[in-house]
Amino acid sequence: MLRTFSTDDFVKVWLILLLLCTLSTKQITFEKEKSKLTSVPSEIPSEVTKINLKENILTSIPDRCFSRFTNLTSVSLDKNKITDVSTTAFQGLAKVKEISLANNLLPSIPALESVENSLVNLYESPVQNIDFSNNKIAVLNPGLFENCTKLVSLKLESNQLTVLPDGVFGPAGTSLRYLSLKSNKLNTVENGTFAYLTNLHELYMENNQFKEFPMEISKLVSIRKLFPRMESNNQHPR
Ligand SMILES: *[C@@H]1O[C@H](CO)[C@@H](O)[C@H](O)[C@H]1NC(C)=O
Ligand SMILES: *[C@@H]1O[C@H](CO)[C@@H](O)[C@H](O)[C@H]1NC(C)=O
Ligand SMILES: *[C@@H]1O[C@H](CO)[C@@H](O)[C@H](O)[C@H]1NC(C)=O
Question: Separation of 170 CA from ligand 2 center, angstroms?
Answer without folding.
Answer: 10
